[in-house]
Amino acid sequence: MTLLKQFGASDISTRKESNGMKLKIKLPLLFLVMFIVFMVSIGIYLKFIFAAYSPISSSLLNPSYIGLLFPIFAIACFIFIILIMYIYFFIEKPIGLLNTRLERINIVHPLPPLALRSNDEIGDLYNHFNKMEKRLQLAHKEQTDIIAAIAHDLKAPLTSINGFAELLAMQKGLSENEKQEYYELIQKKSKYMAELINDFVSFTKEKQDLESMTVKPVDASKLFENIALEYEYELSGLDCELVYKHLFTGNVMLMVNEIMIGRVFGNLFSNVVRYGGKNELKVYMTGYSQGSYAYFEIEDNGTGVPDKDISSLFLKFFTVDKSRQIENGGIGLGLASCKSIIEHHGGEIYAYSSEYGGLGIKFSLPLAKH
Ligand SMILES: Nc1ncnc2c1ncn2[C@@H]1O[C@H](COP(=O)(O)OP(=O)(O)OP(=O)(O)O)[C@@H](O)[C@H]1O
Ligand SMILES: [Mg+2]
Q1: Which residues contact 250 (CB under 8 A, 6 or more apart)?
Q2: Whose CA is nearest to atom 13 of ligand 1?
Q3: Which of 176, 187, 228, 365 is the most exposed place for a label (fewest CB within 10 A)?
């Protein structure tokens, strides 16, 4: 709604017509004045020359004077017409079109993109306008999707809470055990709702953090080892062994925001623990550089993800098994957030079935230029 208000066609303030003189009148007028000034100066100049060199007549009607002035007048007229046409077709008309389009901008039912007219600044303006319109549409779609997902995810636990509360209120003959069971279910569902809201809030905040993110050169091997040390102990406490190996030499530098990249690893490790679903769970972390990128792989020997779902893992709110999400606590934002962090760093991320049996996630980060 805010977006619509800010950028939508219904905003009355954007519809106000400007009362000043239009460019299509202003520019020809300016050229006309320049033309008159030019012709008068030439006329005066020639008259001065004639007065000095022609003893016969310095009259303005002198045929040789008119004969000399006429071609100059014709050429100036020609240039004037060409300039007016150029300004009309290449400046005024495209600006007019852009203006009309800005008035009619509609991010809910988008119009086809503006056709690129030229490779000059006007062409750039059209190009940037098209990109801006696309970004607005995506932002609007994201906003709508998030609202729909929040409503959808909150509806299920809320319905359960309502149901259990009604049971407790209506059924008078419930045993203490049954009552306790319902209370615990209500507590569990409301805790899940609170977690959902927290996740939504941190996802929105992370988007803002990314916009203002700063990067600095970081040694790839140090980054890798710090992450491995940080999570080795934590994962072992969750019955998951971390096996790591990297091939970075001392001078491989990355331009990254360490906190953000740390979040990516954290999201991936927490997924392995949550969804690994095995007793002797292992997570394999590998790092190496190739060309102008550093690559990181996080693979596990867990239950993995069905092939049909692999390509959807990075979509917002995607979860493989919806029915088990309350048990696992996830809402499907972790991998989407990893993707936006990696892409903000200029890298790429994708998922695959690992040779260890579970899920594999590989991402790249550009190396710092020396
Ligand atoms: N290592 C893994 N093994 C098996 N399934 C996985 C693994 N990692 C992710 N998944 C599946 O991918 C889905 C999406 O993961 P993602 O991290 O985006 O969201 P989430 O863990 O459900 O929620 P969030 O991370 O927002 O708390 C998960 O719900 C899970 O079904
Ligand atoms: Mg997750």
Answers
A1: 219, 221
A2: 319
A3: 176
Atom 27, ligand 1: which residue's CA is nearest? 330
Q: Which ligand is nearest to the CA of 324?
A: 1
What confidence score (pLDDT) does residue 12 get?
Answer: 40
Q: Is 199 in the pocket of ligand 1 (CB under 6 A)?
A: yes
Mean pLDDT by 10 residues, the chain (370 residues): 42 48 77 86 78 60 72 85 87 88 85 80 89 90 81 85 90 88 91 85 82 90 95 92 93 92 94 90 96 96 94 89 64 90 95 96 90
Which ranges of the chain does DSSP label H, i.e. alpha helix?
2-7, 12-15, 23-53, 63-86, 93-104, 121-170, 176-211, 220-236, 258-275, 307-310, 325-328, 334-344
Calpha distance 281→21 (Å, rounded): 74
> How high is the pLDDT of residue 9?
40
For domain 216-366, the CATH superfamily is: Histidine kinase-like ATPase, C-terminal domain (3.30.565.10)
Ligand sitting nearest the alpha carbon of 333? 1
**Which atom of ligand 1 lies closest to the CA of 330?**
23
User: What is the 8-class DSSP label of residue 293?
Assistant: E
Instruction: State if pTM tops 0.85.
Output: no
- Kindly give the distance from the C-alpha atom of residue 271 to the centroid of ligand 1, in angstroms, as a whole number: 5
Q: Which residues on neighbouring strands pair with residue 295, listed in sequence order?
A: 288, 364
At 242, give phi and psi (nearest 5°).
-100, 120
Segments making up each domain of the chain, as ranges: 2-105, 216-366
